[in-house]
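Per your request, structure below.
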């Protein structure tokens, strides 16, 4: 910071130093002054078209818009002079000329910037007697409800679509009073970040369609939590009323998700009330029948009695909290089994070093990268918020070049060169005379992003070793910069690896446990593989929250809680440990997963050594010290040797991307009516109606 040039400005008589090049609005905020605004947003380009942020500058003949006015040395700014107050009143009067009196029925009520500023600068009457203009509502997809009469033409939505989402489908047509915001041709938005338009709209023109007419903000309770619908670990706020979750919003965390959230994470919460498992079930006479917890536990205990440990196995799902995973691992240990696998996709991950399976540069490290190679991944659908960060780096740095290895024709929302289809080119990627190869060789901070899906193939171990070797040849494995980045798909995957839930030597992986490999199989929220592969003679316990495909194969069902209904610890793709908080309680007799496992261990006479939340979290820290560093990102040390790939060779086949439909990826999204509507709209691209209308 000592190298940053500063200048002196005076704000309302207070002299201060600010970095050269900041705007008058930013200088006022540094001085602690609140400046009203509608079009200005910290993460978007400056438009300067609402004029609400007017301030007075000494020697200026008229008020200036502070958001677009750069400060100069010695400048004197007044933010609350009579001229400023009257100018803002005039602007507010113009803004309200055509604005409808919708506040009593507007979903933005209570959270509306225009409401707040009208209290400060508005009048109790209007001098405008002509008819208000009317604008037709636009269809922009199943997630956003438009009431365009309320639009004040701030253009935030247009700039967000073009600059952050990278899908410039929103824009303005017409001029003057005839100007309207829309999608030019009426269609559903094709961005995975559409819900953020609701947050940045300063009025009620763009509101949440699933949330329409559901509640007022002052009726809601809030719980801060962590999203697990992808591996970014976005910080979220869950708003609920009584037993009902009504909406999920992003929280600001500049190191992880800034202030954005993917649509799957924001809108899939309606599944909490659909297709839920709310009581235990036990299969009798070939049919699942309701049972008590005691009956369910006794049925499992009776079936496991006398079964040797090597004939018992467990599979962990992709969104499970670390507490439940630890309890399952310890339970299997008491039963004499080491057959625990967290890789439903069969990815050839190497858990011997944390550097082999985390996003080592950190998500914020993307801002330092000057060349990015994406291997076997489409971050736009696997991690939309992370992809937006890559796009921001690409848009703000002419020095950044991006290339990808995988299926041709990917639209990543930024310019990216297609380098090839398969892993066979990784050995020579930086060689040759091409512009991108030269960029790779000259890059100071190259970043190799390896998609987890690239390892879910027979030569996965060789692909992992080849990607690591590529990072080494590019000089990306340094003490000050580790440019090897594994991009996982869900919020529970890294925590499982931190707990070592990968079968070691002599233990059985998922493939070996299927088709009769074990006599008893415990599925902990594991719905990511085909249950038809489980042998008919295998006794299956399904512990989860939705009656999805794996539950239909179970002999005993134990109802668990979703990530929104329990306290839990999760680790995101960069290895950051975070805590999720309970918003509502699970329905019926459903319980937190680790408590179910602890209760069963008591039934079989082998109680697990923790009875409460504090004890199991202490056990987590004992199992791996990283779980004691909540919210802190500690980079993994670069190991002396690369991932184990003895005898493995890279095959020549092209990569297959793991997520075909962004909206439908797991048991929870398969149960979501909103996600189903989004999937249909994306496939058909035709207008459709939601129940709220």
């Amino acid at each position: 910071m000592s190298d940053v040039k500063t200048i002196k400005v005076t704000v309302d008589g207070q002299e201060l130093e600010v970095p050269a090049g900041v705007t008058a609005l930013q200088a006022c905020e540094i001085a602690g002054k609140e400046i009203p605004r509608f079009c200005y947003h910290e993460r978007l380009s400056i438009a300067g078209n609402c004029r609400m942020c007017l301030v007075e500058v000494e020697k200026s003949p008229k008020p200036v818009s502070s958001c677009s006015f750069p400060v100069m040395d010695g400048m004197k700014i007044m933010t609350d002079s009579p001229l400023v107050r009257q100018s803002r009143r005039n602007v507010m009067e113009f803004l309200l000329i055509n604005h409808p009196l919708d506040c009593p029925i507007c979903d933005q009520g209570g959270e509306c910037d225009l409401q707040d500023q009208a209290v400060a600068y508005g009048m109790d009457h209007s001098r405008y007697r002509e008819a208000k203009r009317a604008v037709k509502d636009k269809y922009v997809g199943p997630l956003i409800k438009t009431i365009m009469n309320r639009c004040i033409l701030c253009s935030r939505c247009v700039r967000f679509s073009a600059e952050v989402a990278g899908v410039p489908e929103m824009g303005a047509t017409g001029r003057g009073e005839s100007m309207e915001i829309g999608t030019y041709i009426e269609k559903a938005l094709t961005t995975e970040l559409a819900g953020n338009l609701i947050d940045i709209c300063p009025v009620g023109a763009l509101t949440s369609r699933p949330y329409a007419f559901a509640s007022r903000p002052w009726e809601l309770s809030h719980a801060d939590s962590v999203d697990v619908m992808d591996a970014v670990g976005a910080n979220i706020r869950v708003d609920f009323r009584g037993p009902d979750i009504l909406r999920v919003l992003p929280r600001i965390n500049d190191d992880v998700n800034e202030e954005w959230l993917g649509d799957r994470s924001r809108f899939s919460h309606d599944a909490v009330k659909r297709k839920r498992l709310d009581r235990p079930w036990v299969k009798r006479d070939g049919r699942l029948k309701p049972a008590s917890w005691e009956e369910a536990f006794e049925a499992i205990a009776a079936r496991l009695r006398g079964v040797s440990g090597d004939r018992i196995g467990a599979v962990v799902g992709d969104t499970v909290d670390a507490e439940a995973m630890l309890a399952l691992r310890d339970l299997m240990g008491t039963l004499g089994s080491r057959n625990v696998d967290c890789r439903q996709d069969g990815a050839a991950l190497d858990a011997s070093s944390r550097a082999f399976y985390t996003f080592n540069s950190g998500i914020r490290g993307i801002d330092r990268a000057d060349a990015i190679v994406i291997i076997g991944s489409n971050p736009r659908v696997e991690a939309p918020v992370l992809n937006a960060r890559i796009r921001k780096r690409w848009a703000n740095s002419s020095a950044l070049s991006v290339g990808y290895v995988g299926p041709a024709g990917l639209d990543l929302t930024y310019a990216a060169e297609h380098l090839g289809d398969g892993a066979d080119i990784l050995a020579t990627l930086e060689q040759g005379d091409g512009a991108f190869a030269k960029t790779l060789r000259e890059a100071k901070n190259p970043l190799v992003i390896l998609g987890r899906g690239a390892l879910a193939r027979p030569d996965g171990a060789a692909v992992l070793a080849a990607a690591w070797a590529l990072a080494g040849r590019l000089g990306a494995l340094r003490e000050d910069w580790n440019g090897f980045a594994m991009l996982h798909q869900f919020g529970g995957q890294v925590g499982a690896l931190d707990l070592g839930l990968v079968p070691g030597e002599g233990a059985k992986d998922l493939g070996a446990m299927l088709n009769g490999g074990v006599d008893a199989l415990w599925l902990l929220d594991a719905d990511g593989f085909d249950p038809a592969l489980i042998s008919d003679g295998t006794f299956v316990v399904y512990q989860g929250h939705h009656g999805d495909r794996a539950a239909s194969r179970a002999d005993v069902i134990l109802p668990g809680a979703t990530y929104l209904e329990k306290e839990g610890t999760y680790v995101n793709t960069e290895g950051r440990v975070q805590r999720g908080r309970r918003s509502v309680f699970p329905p019926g007799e459903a319980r937190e997963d680790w408590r179910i496992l602890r209760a069963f261990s008591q039934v079989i006479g082998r109680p697990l050594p923790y009875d409460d939340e504090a004890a199991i979290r202490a056990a987590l820290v004992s199992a791996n010290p990283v779980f004691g560093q909540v919210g802190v990102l500690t980079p993994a040390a670069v190991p002396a040797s690369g991932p184990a790939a003895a005898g493995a060779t890279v095959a020549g086949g092209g990569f297959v991307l793991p997520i075909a439909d962004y909206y439908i990826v797991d048991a929870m999204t398969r149960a979501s009516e909103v996600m189903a509507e989004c999937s249909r709209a994306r496939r058909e691209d035709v207008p459709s109606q939601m129940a709220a209308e």
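The CA atoms of residues 256 and 401 lie 22 Å apart.

Regards,
D.
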